[in-house]
Structure formats: C-alpha cells, structure tokens
User: What shape does this take?
Amino acid sequence: MAHLRCDHVNQSRTTRMRGFAQKLLGLFVMLCLAITSGQAQPSLLTAGEAIFLRGTEAGRPACAACHMPNAAGQPEVGIPRLAGLSTAYLLDQLGYFASGQRHNAAMSSYAAMLTPGQRLEVSTYLQTLPVPPPPDAPAAPSAQLARGEALFLNGDPATGLIGCVQCHGPAGQGVGEFSPRIGGQSAPYVMSELTDWRAGALRDPKGEYMRSIASHLTPSDLQAVAAYVSSLDDHGAPKQ
Assistant: This one.
C-alpha cells in the first residue's frame, strides 16, 4: 500500500511539473510572438527617442544637442549624421565608445553613462529615422567628383584598391549589418575618418580593413572620395 501511495504521489508531482512546464512554454511563445510582431517595439522606440532628444538625466546634454533633432549631424564641424544607420552598427559603436575600444572626447564619456539597454533603445530609434538629404555644401570641382566616383565605383587597379561599392553598395547605402550607410554623409566627417585610417589608426576593433583600404589612397584621393560620398543621394546619384 505504501508503494502504491508513493507511485500516486510521484505521478501527481510529474503531472504538476508537466503542467508548469507547459505554462512556461506558453509564456515564452507569447513573448516571442509579441517581439516578432512588433508589439514590444513602441516602448523601445519611445525610450530611444527620449534618450536622443532629452538625455538620461538633468544637466547632461541629449544626443540631439550635437547630432541635431533629426540626427542629420553638423556637417560644418564634422559631426556625423546618425539617421538611417543600422541598429547593429550603432550598437557596436556605442559599445566601443563605452568600453574604451574607440576614443572620442565627447562620445566616450556619453556612451559610458548609458546602460546596455539604453544603448539598444537609442540605436533602434535612430535606425527608424528618415535619412535627410545630403548636406547643402559648396559643390566640389567636377574633376574631383569624377575622380571620387571612379575610385568609389571601380577602385584603382594600379594600387590594388577595390571600389568602395564592394562593401558600401552603389549608393553608399551600406550592406546589411556588414557595413554602414555612408552616402550623403558630410565630406568633413568622411575625410576625417579616412585620414585617421590612412595614418594608421584602427578607430575600433573592426577598423583593420578600412586602415588597409585607406593606405592605398593619396591625400588628394581621400578628398575626392569624401566629396563624392557626400554628394550621393539614396539612389546613388550625385546631388545636382
């Protein structure tokens, strides 16, 4: 009889455990469905928008103070446009700034004060913003744009340089999570980044490839590529 009672208790316990496991599985499935259907997105975007436009605490400037409310950046002083960059790219760069793997006087300390969750929120928000038109800067000389276009599209076989299009796409729109959107980015910012790479800077843990690419460019070619990249719109056409 005692043996039968133990079997009954064990069976009841097993049944309860199975029921509990099924409930957990059901909750997990519901959570996955909510995330994939976008139900979790509004709160993520709202939080990211608040961080970008208003900051995280009183007395500290928001991201928009430097990058502008539409995330277009400030081309005249080399502050980059962030609108339209992928969440994955932005998340990586904020992580590099926060950890010290990428250095910038303003961004390093700012990124370090954000939690991993806040970095995800603001990165997700920025990806949803419409890409503003290329900066309304003085037109570069036609010969310089032509040289930049040739390098961007075809590279330079004489030096072993491959075209930027191979990684960044024909409109400089980037390729998935592999490379960032650069078309329409300000010429001063592009020039600054290329110059640093050419000088041997890594910038971030993934910078080895760009350092190699920039080493094939002369100073005048750096300017030509930066001018052409800045002129591109989302269709790969230079701004008229």
Notes: The radius of gyration is 25 Å. The CA atoms of residues 87 and 204 lie 17 Å apart. The mean pLDDT is 84. The first helix runs from residue 2 to 36.
